[in-house]
Amino acid sequence: MSMRPSSVPGRLCRIATTTALLVGSLALPVGGQAEEPDAPLTLYSGRSESLVGPILERFSAVSGIGVDARFGDTAELAALLLEEGERSPADLFFAQDAGALGAVADGDLLAPLPDDLVARVPEAFRDASSRWVGVSGRARTVAHTTTEELGLPDSILGFTDPAWSGRIGWAPSNGSFQAFVTALRARYGEAATREWLQGVLANDPVAYPSNSSAVEGVAAGEVDVALVNHYYLLQLQEEHGEAYPVAQHFFEGGDLGSLVNVAGIGRLDSSDQPDAAAAFIDFMLSAEAQRYFAETTFEYPLIDGVAADPRLPSLASLDVPEIELADLADLKGTVELLRDVGAID
Amino acid sequence: MLTSPSGLRIRTIASSSRPPAALLVLAAVVVVLAVVPVAHLGLRALEGGLETLQPLFRARTLELLISTLALGLAVTVGAVGLGLPLAWLTTRTDLPARRAWTILAVTPLAMPSYLLAFSFVAASAPRGWLAALLEPLGMTAAPSSYGFGGAVLVLTLTTTPYVVISVRASLARLDSAGEEAARSLGSGPWAAARTAILPVILPALGAGALLACLYAISDFGAVSILRYDTLATAIYSQYRLSFDRSAASALALLLLLMALSLVWAEGRVRGRAARQVAHGRRRPARVVALGRWRWPALGLCAALAALSLLVPSVTIAGWLVSGWRRGPQLWDAVDALSDSLVLAFGAGLLAVAVAVPLSLLVSHFPGRTATATERLLYGLYAIPGISLALAVVSLTLNVLPALYQTLFALVLAVALRFLIQSVGALRGPWLQISSHTLEAARSLGERPPGVLRSITLPLLKPGLLGGFAVVFLSALKELPLTLLLAPAGFSTLATDLWDAAREAFYGEAAVPATLLLLVSFLSVGLLVRRGDVQA
Fold first, then answer.
1. B183 and B118 within one domain
2. Which chain B residues are within 8 Å of A246, Cβ to Cβ?
3. Alpha carbon distance B131, B145 (integer Å)
4. pLDDT tens sequence across B224-263
5. A173/A339 Cα distance (integer angstroms)
6. Which domains does chain A have, with CATH numbers?
């Protein structure tokens, strides 16, 4: 096996390494991040692209400001913002619920918004210190199958009844669901909330990755009921037609099962484009964007002069549970509780 | 795909000399790039002291560990059980339309596991198309795809091609002399196969089985869709919904250790297995006449093709129809396609560029450095995507903020993870270049650039193409790294498909799904034509 050391291998290696470096350096600029003067806004969106993508594009078309969105779960992005702190590349946080906005605001990461912006929205649906503002309203509801008579409970608390075993769908990783659990904790306390969660878990609920897939689960016959927000059903009816075998139920008597929450926006204190960020919020609170939320995503518009979908009970007629949205900021505690009882991993 | 180390022993370029410094430096850079994120993950897991590791000692962790292992084991058994006969049927028998079946057996490589999972869920829903199909047969519902059974089925179908490719390559190289000798000494066909064939293809089978097992334990997309909880899904959930990342990091390390022990165990087994020695001219293998056994053989091939290709195609076609009613969203898909191509080209080029010298190191300078580098690359490949993603997020955010959420970090991570595939594709071509060839060329008066042009590059070319194409394909299908590392505004066909289908907006998922499949079918086609996957 002995072999005369030849210069051939050495040269081969050099050629190979040079090729590697050349091609490598060609691949490098792909990652280069140019800091343009009018760089696009970076938006962390807890609302999915399917829901808000069109209105983001509309904003860019109207304002000439680009938007780079990072989509994720609301709680994920709140946790990410808290971890990133001052280093966050985000200019805006579009959350699925007020609690997550409160959590980020409590981390001193949100800058106060101009008064004329927040004043367009009723006080109940914005932060008292103007650090975030609601953009659209949504009610919790129970989507249920119409293929059989179910005998729904009078309260969301009734789903711990063993009669519901194997029939419940929910989305425990979803921000709106977590806000609802935070509301339970705020009203009934930690122990009672834990007991309710354990009671529902004893009924082997099916955990869906999102609200809409939970409603689709009802339609597909996988479960009989799904604890979701009100607008998913309307969207799915739009897609599948009126024969869609699902209806939804709003609880009465101020039951938390019909909690009204908002999706809202906050502007990061670390943003280097505060004006463009404010322009974004301004657009989301314009009549055009509010009509989009009313007519395309079927949420409740929050400014005067834009009406909700006629098929929905009006916000005023909903027997809204008395919960201050500001009380829902302890998202961390809710996530820990959900993990502790085994609702999420 | 990885090709098992060739059993061929050709005199190498410099088997006795030490590798040149340039190669060692490059290997060291790769080692650092691979080790740093993992070390950081370890630090991250430990930063809060033992207290933060407490979640690791819950009963739930043990459950997840067991469910992950059970999945890995079942998928390995399934993939070997299907892949071995399939490889044999398509290389050594007179199976009708053998070439077509070969292509069909390999094509599922293009099918991402999460897409297959979505398809099975949609098809087998209580009111899905499979139920409608089964109704006339008196069945009220299709069997559910959720849970262990569904996860095993989907991941077995996804990983069988890895076993097929690995074993086929070994069977194709097999010298039939041993088998014939065994037969001439009076052994029956089965005994001859056991004594003469099995030991020789065992390393390839082991490599294929290892790939299947690693794939299964680290898969994240399919198992979450099929609602089968594993360590990978728990890590993702911990990452997404936790205000404290130590627990996620600890779980990620656990999964990493599991993967590396598998690599180690397979290495031990392979080390003991017989090595094939090729001398002289290879004798063409005898073709086995199947006789009436060809019907069940055809049935097996057809059933596999139907499950892994037909079911998803029918489902996606259904999505396209329902998506059409909502109006086509072609432009979003074009954006995603271009992002996918940027990622896949970037990762493919980077991987092949680094793989050229690295594969020279492992093929021509056997020794401790080469072995260690190769093991490490294998280890990187074995690191579950979700663990690597978590490590890179944390490392870039806390230590290298300039790289945080940049496309470069994503491309680098993807290229590193799949680097071994590229090295595997280039090792064979490098081995064909012996120092004798080069010296002969030089002694005939060829200058070094001429040698490079007329000998080295032409011989390396298939490896360069193949090494690029495999990483391209893997990057295209990649999900967890892209989900966690993509900069804001960057979304690939895979992530678009994932987001839409998670929301159950299947109509919206249809276009990215179709485009993704088209591009990956094309790259598998390239591999098949190139002969990497011999048809």
1. yes
2. none
3. 12
4. 989 999 999 998 888 887 777 778 888 888 888 898 898 8
5. 10
6. 9-136+262-301 (3.40.190.10), 138-259+325-341 (3.40.190.10)
Query: Range with the lowest mean pLDDT among B127-136, B323-332, B356-365, B378-387?
Result: B323-332
- B532 pLDDT band (50/70/90 cuts)? low
Chain A residues touching B486 at Cβ < 8 A: 70
Long-range contacts of A283-286 (CB under 8 A, 24+ apart): A283/A59, A283/A62, A283/A63, A284/A55, A284/A59, A284/A135, A285/A117, A285/A120, A285/A121, A285/A133, A285/A135
Residues B354, B254, single domain; the answer is no
Which whole-number Å values give the CA distances from B232 to B6, B25, B239, in the listed order?
Answer: 33, 34, 11
- Mean pLDDT, residues B339-355: 95
| Chain A residues 156-175 with CB within 8 Å of chain B | 173
What CA–CA distance (Å, rounded) separates B50 from B53? 5
Determine whether B241 is exposed, middle or buried from the number of CB atoms within 10 Å of its CB (0-12, 13-18, 19+): buried
Q: Can you give the three-state secondary structure of B270-308, one letter per residue?
A: HHHCCCCCCCCCCCCCCCECCHHHHHHHHHHHHHHHHHH
Same domain membership, residue B53 and residue B32: no
What is the distance in angstroms between the Cα of A251 and the nearest Cα belonging to chain B?
25
State whether the Cα torsion B111-B112-B115-B116 is positive or negative: positive
CB–CB contact B353 A339 (8 Å): no
- d(CA B91, CA B193) in angstroms, rounded, equals 14
Band the pLDDT of B283: cuts 50, 70, 90: low
- If DSSP codes are grouped into helix, strand and coil, which group holds residue B446? coil
Q: Is B125 in Cβ contact with A9 (below 8 Å)? A: no
Q: Across chain A, what does the average pLDDT equal? A: 87
Say if the Cβ atoms of A13 and B360 lie within 8 Å: yes
What gap in Å lies between CA B390 and CA B245, rounded to an integer?
Answer: 9
Residue A318: both structure tokens together: 């909903």
pLDDT for position A20: 53
d(CA A251, CA A140): 9
> What type of residue sits at position B497?
L
pLDDT of residue B322: 76
Q: Does A32 touch chain B (CB under 8 A)?
A: yes
ipTM surpassing 0.90: no
Tell whether B305 and B402 lie within a shared domain. no
Chain B partners of A333 at a C-beta cutoff of 8 Å? Answer: none
Q: Which residues contact A123 (CB under 8 A, 6 or more apart)?
A: none
Instruction: Give pLDDT tens digits for A97-126.
Output: 898 999 999 999 999 999 999 999 999 899
B464: in domain: yes
Q: Which of A59-68, B22-31, B127-136, B369-378 has the lowest mean pLDDT?
A: B127-136
Residue identified by tokens 């398509």 is B90
- Please tell me the pTM assigned to this model: 0.84
> Reduced to 3 states, what is the DSSP secondary structure of residue B491?
coil
B355: amino acid identity, one letter: A
Q: Which residues contact A119 (CB under 8 A, 6 or more apart)?
A: none
Residues in chain A: 345
Hey, what's the torsion of the CAs at B399, B402, B406, B410, to 10 degrees?
A: -40
Q: Which domain holds residue B65?
A: 49-272+299-314
Residue type, B520: S
Largest CA distance in chain A: 93
Strands A41-45 and A67-71: parallel
Which one-letter amino acid corresponds to residue B525?
Answer: G
For residue B436, the Cα-to-chain-centroid distance in whole angstroms is 35
Percent of chain B with pLDDT over 70: 89
> How large is the average pLDDT for residues B200-216?
89
End-to-end alpha-carbon separation of chain B, Å?
A: 15
Q: What are phi and psi of A81, to 5 degrees?
A: -60, -40
Residues in chain A where the model's pLDDT stays below 70: 1-37, 319
C-beta of residue A201 within 8 angstroms of C-beta of residue A172: no
